[in-house]
Amino acid sequence: MTVYVDTMKAKFGNMVMCHMFADTDEELHAMADKIGIQRKWFQCPPKASWRHYDIALSKRKLALSFGAEEMQWRDVAYWARLVQGR
Q: In the chain, is it the N or the C terminus that has fewer CB atoms within a 10 Å radius of its CB?
């Protein structure tokens, strides 16, 4: 099982954001805890199309240092349908 960060770079205010997601919620939340992301930022259906956190690039770098794997932004939709059944 794996935690992923994508290569998206979306502006949000003064920050640049990407997505962090995982094969299981347990892994995703464990990584969020490690990098200091609060659970209130977890996004899931029906408000979001898939289960993930939006994270700043500084948190992305930290997640990668803890073993997250990079995924190209164009591959995320395929992954979400495959793993999360969407």
A: N
